[in-house]
Queue: 4 jobs
Job 1
Amino acid sequence: MNGIKIRGTGRCVPEKTVTNEDLARIVDTSDEWITTRTGIRTRRHCTTETHTDLCVKAAEDALARAGVSTDEIGACIVATVSPDTLVPSAACCLQSALGLPQDILCFDLNAACTGFLFALHTMECLLNSSPRKYGLVVGAEALSRLIDWEDRGTCILFGDGAGAAVVECREGWPSSPAALGCRGDDALLRVAGPGTGEPPLIHMDGTKVFKFAVETVPQCMDQVLQKAGLSVEDVDFFVFHQANARIIDLAVRKYHIPPEKYYKNIADYGNTSAASIPLVLSELQEQGEVVPGSRVLVVGFGGGLTWGGMLIEFA
């Protein structure tokens, strides 16, 4: 199977910024309490923006940066748990808004915070059987719709946003080493669906999710590095799902990753679930931290439970 590389990235976040002080006026919390435990200082929440609006802007920026036209796209996947509508899917709404070809696969993928990684791996498989060799992968969330404002342990965490990547598949490129997995478990993190009689709000056991993440992130990194036959020193940049600054810090210390090889934007955006990793990738490319040839190890984990790691190269 031929591999994929990232050609261009883009992002979009809502205009409204919600600070820790804003939340302290709603629930029993404080800026110090939130910052010391999570690393989050602000997050963005949609007001007039729709989920589709976020996807469209992020995707347009990624296409422009990649220098790829809409008629060259062979498949479109949107990783999300919070679309505007279940049907049509966010990917179909994006296809219509962008004018993507009608003879391609467009669908949503729900793997919570690991969704973007699942989508990248799925896109690699799809493009191997497509005559068009460019794919559009978007991670987008409007999680502010799912917040339980009476739960101070979760309402402080989540933000809205979208990140997109245009990927290219070419003969002779090796497949991207990946380690992906899931374990059906709704005890740690759950959002009820239609027909359950429950409101569709985020319920999470934060302590157990933290423990799960601390154990899972190193396992994913070890598996990807082993599959790639590489060491930490061979990787140009590490991108972690931005769920909690302490989880990232623990991984950084364990693997002795130097400051110039990892990046955190959780202080600005909070946990944006499937949008988290592509938001980081977009900022890194814009800043020139990743360039053609850069090898980036991305790691995610989330509800489902889901987890994954992948070594992706920029073209």
Note: The radius of gyration is 18 Å.
Job 2
Amino acid sequence: MSDSSVHRAPDALDSSHGSRRVRAARWHLLLAPAFGLALFLGWTLLAGSGLYADFIVPSPAAVADRWWQIASDGSLLRHAAVTLREVLTGLILGIFAAFTLGYLIAKSRIIAYTLTPYLVALQAIPIVAIAPLLIIWFGAGIVSKVIVCALLVFFPMLINTMLGIRNIPGELRDLMDSLEATPVQTFWHLELPAALPIMIGGLKVSATLSVIGAVVGEFVSANAGLGYLINFGRGVYDTPLVIAAVFTLTALALTLYGLAAWMEALLLGWQKVSR
């Protein structure tokens, strides 16, 4: 057997495996749209079956018409802007507080032993039980909604920050000590890059939870926002309005999650290169 045939055989195997991986990747991309199409067809058939009244299970066309109505008159944009403002403000405050406190807890056992029981107890309280108290204490304006949103965002980001900082290998810390790095240098060049993958995982969870927090606050007391639209539609049995507002909230949550995933690709692209 010649040397050229020996070299061609592995190349042929690699190309066949590569083509198989490409076909598998294309097949996987079709799964989510196919499942969504199946849900849409099931919804359409159920709405047209006559088993339920229109105000209980409206058709997709009725929901689309209602969504277009509130979008064309500007009310959807106005209410979505209120909710987005609450979400972004609560998300930023919650992430900042969680990162700061999570870093301190990971670095200090005294702080960990002091605060951990209270943080766990706070997380154990349902947010719907705290929201009315926050409305009473801080009023029905944006402040109470931002606090509800920040509280819901806080705990997942706190846990991921603690895990990220605590899971840094001791050998890397010893290396920084041998280089006589300052605490600030250790933070920027070791702790933050090493903990970033786990922290961005917490950011993805927090991004979706922030939308839930804002809506919970609007459910309790609000005169604007997508949560208010849902409450209003429920009160007058305007089910298409409720579903249209829910779809808008879903799009908002998916957008925030997509931004977190884009940030992950931007900041952690070096991991794929190193592999």
Note: The radius of gyration is 25 Å.
Job 3
Amino acid sequence: MSTEATSRAGRTAPAPGALLLCRAEPDSVAPAARLLRERMLLTRAGEGWTVLVPEGGPWRRGEEPVDRVMTGWATALAVGAPWPVLALWWDADRGGYTLASGFRRPVGYVWLANGTPAGQDEAMRTFAARLALDPVLDVQSLDHLTKPDPAADAPARLRGLLAVLTRAGLDLPAGLAPGEPADRLRDAVRDRPDARPVLWEGPQDTVRGGLEAVAGRRLTPWLPWSGDPKALALALAQMTAGLPLAAWGLRHRSGGWLTAGTLLLAHGALGVSYALAHPRD
């Protein structure tokens, strides 16, 4: 066995960990994040970016793989917000990301623990397009991450991904590095002056507050209490999409996808109930 191979084989496999990166200001992200009903810490991560650090998660109890949970959480956040959500995750066997944006199908990429690419190149191009990255410079850097590199393991691949995003304003706080265990990630942001806990406050206030926070004036006609026909159409679409997602999550015991489906159903039910209680003249 070569010296390089021996060195890589002797590395300690990373414990499961994850981060949620939202391309929005913290004040917009906080109300939406409460809908996940998970304890998290939230802090700014550069110009126009926010990072959510889970304090726990089903993967820590061995109930569900970290990648499945994070995909569901990213999807749940993105369906009710006008900004994209990027989930980064890693465990002893793999590392990867999932990018969720609105109702579009999430896109992701996976690397094996030793850094071997295990995704489709097209996913990287879709990733760049949805985040409006540079179609030449950034796409070339992302394409490099899909090529074999004996010197780069999965955490190194994720760090390379984050390096590309720094050109889009991302600036992660010190200590939030792929490959770190969840406890170290939490400790890295706990004492930051702008860090705040994300706590669920109850269904009705959280749903309404989350929608108002992430929508803004531009999306006011789509809010349940706007009285606009668009609101009812959106509510019905949310319920139509949420039911199969929740059923799939329940059938496969996936807390992440169950959360996404439940969130859609809650949003839709709120819109429909408001429309029925306040019919237009």
Note: The chain has two domains: 3-196, 216-277.
Job 4
Amino acid sequence: MTAPASASGSGQDNNLVALSLMSGAMMIVPIMDVIAKYLSLSLPPLEVTFGRFVFQLLISLAVALMTWNLKGLRSKRPGVNYLRGILLSAAVLSFFTAVKYMPVATAISIFFVEPMILTILAALILKEKVGLRRIAAILTGLAGALIILRPSFLEIGPASLLPVLTATFFASYLLVNRLYKGTDGLLAIQFGAGLSGSIVLGVALAVGTLLGDPDYAFAVPDLNQTGFLFAIGAISFVGHGLVVSAFQRGEAALLAPLQYLEIVSATLFGYLVFGDFPDGPTWIGIALIVGSGLYITQRERALNKRRATEPAAKL
């Protein structure tokens, strides 16, 4: 009788730690987006994104050196890891460009159509079956995005669609993770993403500088701007580490809904720094997106359980 109670307590403790880690990550990650919005007032978003990945790369290297773990930087599937980094850098660039033109909370809210896009991509590429209820959830979430986009599109034009592009790139990133489940450690993932992102974005920044385009050309950052770029890289590194640690300790279905805390923290920081606050229709759109995302997450959990029990049933 004692052993089951102990195991249950341990599981509950792990879930509590995981919930704390995930909540912490969702509260600090929007700070990175707010800093990116602030920097985009004086630096091209491409340069801000480049700085984010460069400092992520340097922080990963520094942690490996300080822990005498240079081997931990080595990836077992470098090609896949670098592809992840390219997709992630494209997603971040799209998002950092978006927050230059629109409130952070609005951009993050639209970005959360990502579970719907991932479901569509999984159906098209992985041939996963999508039932009528999930199709209804996808359409509901997209309707919520359209409600949020309505005033933004009238005010800033096609740039308001950048969070949707962000969601598409990030969904593709997650799809690659699903296709190539690896055993790389956190340092290898962070280092690989930082390296590939720095290379791709560095080349793009060099081309923009040669062409003399002010929106893509390198501008020498001052000490204050460099400090903020370092902060973005550090928050990215820490935030990713907290999320990975949370999912290592807790149940995915328990943690997934907490990602929507990001909307709350983004709204708070966006209001404190820029005075931005979503209007009534935007909150309705947010509610539709969050509700659809939660339903899709729940359906995915149920389907995974069914897949896990099917082989046992056949035996």
Note: Residues 104-182+279-315 form one domain.
